[in-house]
Design brief:
The chain has 341 residues and is α+β, with helices and mostly antiparallel strands. It folds into two domains: 1-49; 67-332, Alpha-Beta Complex (paralog of FGE (formylglycine-generating enzyme)), CATH 3.90.1580. It contains ten helices and 13 strands. It has helices at 2-23, 32-45, 51-66, 106-109, 132-141, 149-152, 161-164, 174-188, 197-204, 279-282, and strands at residues 68-71, 74-78, 116-120, 123-126, 171-173, 192-193, 226-228, 234-236, 269-274, 296-300, 312-316, 318-323, 331-332. The strands form five sheets. The chain has a four-stranded antiparallel β-sheet with strand order 1-4-13-6. A hairpin with a 5-residue loop joins strand 7 and strand 8 (234-236). Helix 2 packs across helix 3 and helix 3 (51-66) crosses helix 5. The radius of gyration is 22 Å and the shape is globular. The two termini are 42 Å apart.
């Protein structure tokens, strides 16, 4: 009995110490009470984790909540809303009511040309793609190898963690992305999951507007590429004008009007839905979740030559290799914003 009391006192002291440590962390989004709750969850879930890993998990959890952008629900026409047929610059298009040409051949091959009404409930979406730093904390907490562990530990040409931590983390499977988002939910107490395909497109299009690219201004402006100015002269986009580029760290380019980064490129992103070319013909209006079954999962936002907001892609659910076109971001599946201090 005496020994049990001693052990209880030690355990209580450890939890109090950890909670006190978390009290030194502050956030404009996550309340002090919630930080303490998250920290307690981490201690209970991972009692054998070392102090550095527990700190990383806490940082990941708090930053993930801070990054969530609340998106008010509404109705929109999902799918290819067509492009002007006489456009001279595919990366600088403005929609008009007489637009009648497919924006890309893939719209027909993937079924995105089936325009249909969707009404979404409110939700929150991460303003950035999930990074190596974040998935490292998840994988280490679950005693799993980190993404691209063999390359990172290469004896001859190792890749330092510092070079990767802010880059979008790839996956080998859709389930890895799903598990990560559910893990965040378990730690934070929020209903976190992958976004649906409809949620992703609605957010990329600034709540369903007819916007072709999910950049700050709806155009693609690659540094050094040419464009025709209003006076008819050929100009090059400067560093200050650039809003899209090759794969790299998150948040390099300005966000879209909702405050979401890299929806127009960088990594491709898994969503929750199974893929079906015909789903847009069958989709319910209210909060569509995708087909009930399938063999591939939908990915959205892959850059390529035309990173259109309406472009659909799909991938098999498992692979033996990591590819940057299989990244992801998480969503909070509740109709109210997360609690603020």
């Amino acid at each position: 009995m005496k020994l049990n009391k001693i052990l209880l006192l030690i355990l209580s002291a450890n939890i109090t110490a950890c909670n006190n440590e978390s009290n030194t962390m502050s956030s404009d989004v996550v309340s002090k009470k919630e930080i303490e709750k998250i920290n307690t969850n981490i201690i209970q879930l991972y009692p054998k984790a070392d102090a550095n890993l527990k700190k990383d998990i806490l940082n990941v959890a708090i930053e993930s909540l801070e990054s969530m952008v609340f998106i008010k629900g509404g109705s929109f026409m999902m799918g290819d809303f067509k492009a002007p047929c006489n456009t001279t610059d595919l990366e600088k298009m403005d929609w008009t009511s007489d637009a009648s040409c497919n924006t890309a051949l893939s719209m027909t091959t993937t079924g995105a040309n089936n325009l249909h009404k969707v009404t979404l409930s409110s939700y929150s979406l991460s303003n950035h793609e999930t990074t190596y730093y974040e998935t490292d904390a998840f994988n280490l907490s679950e005693n799993k190898p980190r993404a691209r562990q063999n390359i990172r530990n290469n004896k001859k040409y190792p890749i330092p963690d510092e070079q990767l931590q802010f880059k979008p983390s790839p996956t080998k499977s859709w389930q890895e992305a799903k598990n990560y988002c559910l893990w965040l939910g378990k730690i934070t107490g929020y209903p976190i999951d992958l976004p649906t395909e409809a949620q992703w497109e609605y957010a990329a299009r600034n709540r369903g507007k007819n916007i072709y690219y999910a950049t700050n201004n709806g155009y693609v402006q690659r540094i050094g590429s040419n464009y025709i100015s209003e006076d008819g002269s050929i100009q090059e986009y400067t560093k200050e004008q650039g809003n899209y580029g090759d794969f790299g760290d998150i948040k390099r380019w300005p966000p879209n009007p909702l405050g979401l980064y890299d929806m127009a490129g960088n990594s491709g992103e898994w969503v929750n839905d199974w893929y079906s070319k015909n789903y847009y013909k069958e989709s319910p209006v209210l909060d569509p979740q995708g087909p009930k079954t399938g063999t591939e999962k939908v990915t959205r936002g892959w850059g390529g030559s035309m990173p259109l907001t309406t472009a659909r892609s799909y991938e098999k659910t498992n692979d033996s290799n990591y590819y940057s076109r299989r990244g992801f971001r998480c969503a909070v599946q509740q109709t109210t914003p997360i609690n603020k201090p």
